[in-house]
Amino acid sequence: MTLKVKFNDFEIISRSRSVPAAVSSRSDLERLSIALLQDEMPLPKPVRAPGVSLSSLQGDEQTKSNSSSDLSGAA
Fold it and tell me: Taking the model in full, what pTM does it have?
């Protein structure tokens, strides 16, 4: 997962974090996104555009095999 923040002067920072299991719910995505953002707080200047991207996506069959994994240890 990658958080990208574009500031009002168009400077861009990005922060990434890998998780051991698939992110399979909106609440997990929100929790991980907020954790990345909180690591940067307070932000040094006004934000123009925040963004979140995911990579290494898995299909339904792969997600089902990983569904028993616990994300609570991911920080």
Answer: 0.65
